[in-house]
Write a structure and sequence with these properties.
Elements lengths: L1 H32 L6 H17 L4 H24 L8 H23 L15 E3 L2 E3 L1 H23 L1 H11 L1 H6 L4 H26 L6 H16 L4 H21 L5 H15 L14
Antiparallel strand pairs: 1-2
Length: about 290
């Protein structure tokens, strides 16, 4: 049991929480706009890389963090204008898949220019040095991911259920025309949702940078696992995104340990297919219903 906890449960939950955060950001955006932002993976690594480049140029660390966060917000808003808003509730997925994935490629190439495509250590994050806790080797970077995921999920759930803005965002996702008839701006709802997903990307990026070596294309790796997680859990479900991320993390880690690291993707995508056979809208998803 100790070996299972050390080699599968702890690393699986830690990595799964990262996938869950990305899946939650997907779910938040899809809940309002009906769009999945395939550029989100690169938004996750954007702020840490900007922080590193700024600090290397002699900028004070606190200012480097502000510049990284500002760059993330600007990139998210530009993505919303050029790749998301034109296709909100368009009824065709092809357009936003191509536009947001194009953003992902553009961001990857832009980040690769100053970074030189080299792996970089992030020295400003949560300590990743291992220590012994109750007989298990862990680090603060690993231990922080799951609480961060749960906190983000709880805050978002309260926001959508208990605030007027949250209810308006849900209304736009359920019925755009009906929401606009009540005076709710579709463009404003799209912008707010993108900013929320950018805040989640900032949290995710800080956690990723604390525990892993940074690469300009690292976000693409997280993109696909996050997409599998939200697809498995249900596109519009925050709870489903959380569960989906943790399941993907545990399955991929268990496969890597018991079978081999080359079979991780096969196991995860096979599980996704099996879930879709039983639940075409995901574990916690539901058929879209328009209420009149």
């Amino acid at each position: 049991m100790d070996q299972f906890i050390q080699s599968i449960l702890l690393p699986g939950l830690s990595q799964g929480a990262i996938y869950g955060l990305i899946a939650v950001a997907f779910a938040v955006l899809h809940l309002t706009t009906g769009v999945i932002n395939f550029g989100h993976g690169q938004l996750v690594v954007l702020a840490p890389i900007i922080i590193l480049l700024s600090a290397a140029a002699g900028v004070p660390v606190w200012l480097a963090f502000l510049l990284g966060f500002a760059a993330l917000l600007i990139a998210a808003l530009v993505t919303e204008v050029v790749a998301i808003r034109p296709f909100v509730q368009s009824g065709s997925a092809v357009s936003w898949i191509l536009s947001t994935f194009g953003v992902s490629i553009v961001l990857t190439e832009i980040l690769a220019i100053p970074a030189g495509g080299e792996a970089t250590y992030f020295p400003f994050g949560i300590p990743s040095d291992p220590f012994t806790l109750w007989g298990f080797r862990v680090s603060w970077a690993e231990l922080s991911t799951l609480p961060a995921l749960l906190l983000v999920a709880v805050l978002l759930t309260v926001f959508y259920r208990a605030t007027r803005v949250g209810r308006e965002l849900r209304a736009v996702g359920e019925d755009v025309q009906g929401a606009e008839a009540l005076g709710i701006s579709r463009a404003r709802a799209s912008q707010i949702t993108v900013l929320i997903s950018a805040l989640i990307a900032a949290v995710t990026g800080f956690l990723v940078a604390s525990s892993q070596i940074l690469l300009p294309n690292l976000g693409i790796f997280f993109l696909f696992y996050g997409f599998v997680a939200v697809s498995m859990g249900g596109m519009n479900s925050i709870l489903g995104a959380v569960i989906g991320g943790l399941v993907v993390g545990l399955v991929s880690q268990a496969t890597a340990v018991y079978i081999g690291p080359l079979y991780g993707n096969l196991a995860v995508f096979t599980l996704l297919v099996l879930v879709y056979v039983v639940r075409p809208h995901g574990l916690f998803g539901a058929r879209p219903v328009r209420e009149v």
